[in-house]
UniProtKB/TrEMBL annotation:
Keyword field contains Transcription: yes
UniProt xrefs under Gene3D superfamilies: 3.40.50.2300, lambda repressor-like DNA-binding domains (1.10.260.40)
Keywords in alphabetical order: DNA-binding, Transcription, Transcription regulation
MF (Gene Ontology): DNA binding
Pfam families tied to this protein: LacI (PF00356), Peripla_BP_3 (PF13377)
Domain of life from the UniProt record: Bacteria
PROSITE patterns: HTH_LACI_1, HTH_LACI_2
Entries under SMART domains matching the protein: HTH_LACI
Full protein name: LacI family DNA-binding transcriptional regulator
Domain HTH lacI-type: 4-58
Database matches in InterPro entries: HTH_LacI (IPR000843), LacI/GalR-like_sensor (IPR046335), Lambda_DNA-bd_dom_sf (IPR010982), Peripla_BP_I (IPR028082)
PANTHER family, A to Z: HTH-TYPE TRANSCRIPTIONAL REGULATOR GALS, LACI-RELATED TRANSCRIPTIONAL REPRESSOR
Length: 344
């Protein structure tokens, strides 16, 4: 017979996975009857946690997890954005003497494996309004901070970014250079009104700047390609085939902008002489591209530290003066990939 899991124990006891975890860890609220029933089942089934055959009541395990819903479990995330974000999370955790693991949970039907790793808190990146995912995370009864998720539940701890302002600043800057046909690489745009995404927020800022300038929004200039090098690279040819010839492109991520630069180079299109390119994030490599990438800057490392501080304060029951919601600012970083529109 396979070794029983915490999910099996919860099913036999007719309680939630979180309640089993609370009994094992000696924390939270549960009745004496429930405790005895769970401990009896654990003993009879010879259940042992995966990480250690002991109770965490005797020793606190300073471990938190960063969870990425759209990445498969066990996959190494190669996106430099996550490398910088994880660096910030680890830096903040190290200052508080905590350790961090990173895992994807895409297509993961059961999140109870997180409890078996004796994790004390979660940082969830990019959850958006996914009722099932959020409900599954709540069942774990772990302190949690959501990053860049745009969740409507005001009771959840969240660290966000002023994405709309970023879209507005970038577009306004390009308009100031004389560009009137500005294409965007937006990532997938969800049409469900209640669901908000990073791409939608940045597109909202883009549209606001156009409206202020008296320019009608042109849906044909919006390319819903992925925030990836490949997505940006393939966008280059699509942009050159548009009936409405764009003089500038605003990619909603530096990764897409990097692919775009390579795509234009292979097509013999000069940046910024023939077309300007704007990114978003200000990743560490952005200034070392040729040409250097003009972009919307966010403090990725600092945001990771803010998220881990908010989480560990929850774990240690410390009051947080910043409240449950932190919105980080953005700014413009001008380099050589943008220039005034050429007169034709």
């Amino acid at each position: 017979m396979d070794r029983p899991t915490i999910k099996d124990i919860a099913k036999l006891a007719n309680v939630s996975i979180g309640t089993v975890s609370n009994v094992m860890n000696g924390k939270g609220r549960f009745s004496e009857e429930t405790r005895k029933k769970i401990e009896k089942i654990i003993k009879q089934s010879n259940y042992m946690p995966n990480v250690a055959a002991r109770s965490l009541r005797d020793k606190f395990n300073p471990l938190i997890a960063m969870v990425v819903p759209f990445a498969p479990r066990g996959e190494i995330i190669v996106n430099p954005f996550f490398a910088q974000l994880i660096s910030g999370v680890e830096s903040g955790a190290r200052d508080r003497k905590f350790h961090v693991i990173v895992t994807g949970v895409k297509d993961e039907p059961d999140l109870s494996f997180l409890l078996e790793k004796n994790i004390n808190g979660l940082i969830v990146f990019g959850a958006n309004d996914s009722p099932k995912l959020v409900a599954d995370i709540k069942k774990l009864q772990l302190p949690t901070v959501y990053m860049d998720s745009y969740l409507s539940d005001g009771d959840l701890y969240q660290v966000g970014l002023n994405d709309e302002m970023g879209g507005y600043l970038a577009t306004k800057y390009l308009l100031g250079l004389g560009h009137r046909a500005i294409a965007v690489i937006s990532g997938p745009i969800c049409e469900v009104k209640k669901v908000k995404t990073i791409g939608q927020a940045r597109l909202s800022g883009y549209r606001k700047a156009l409206e202020e300038a008296g320019i009608e929004f042109n849906r044909n200039l919006v390319l819903e390609n992925e925030f990836s090098v490949e997505g940006g690279y393939h966008s280059a040819q699509q942009i050159m085939q548009l009936n409405d010839r764009a003089t500038a492109v605003f990619a909603f991520s530096d990764m897409a902008a990097m692919g775009l630069l390579k795509g234009f180079y292979d097509l013999g299109i000069s940046v910024p002489d023939d077309i300007s390119v704007m990114g978003f994030d200000d990743l560490y490599f952005s200034e070392y591209l040729t040409p250097g990438l003009t972009t919307v800057r966010q403090d990725i490392d600092g945001r990771g530290q803010s998220a881990v501080k908010l989480l560990i304060d929850q774990i240690e029951n410390k009051s947080n003066l910043e409240g449950k919601h932190i919105i980080s600012p953005v700014s413009l970083k001008v380099r050589q990939s943008t220039a005034a529109v050429r007169k034709r």
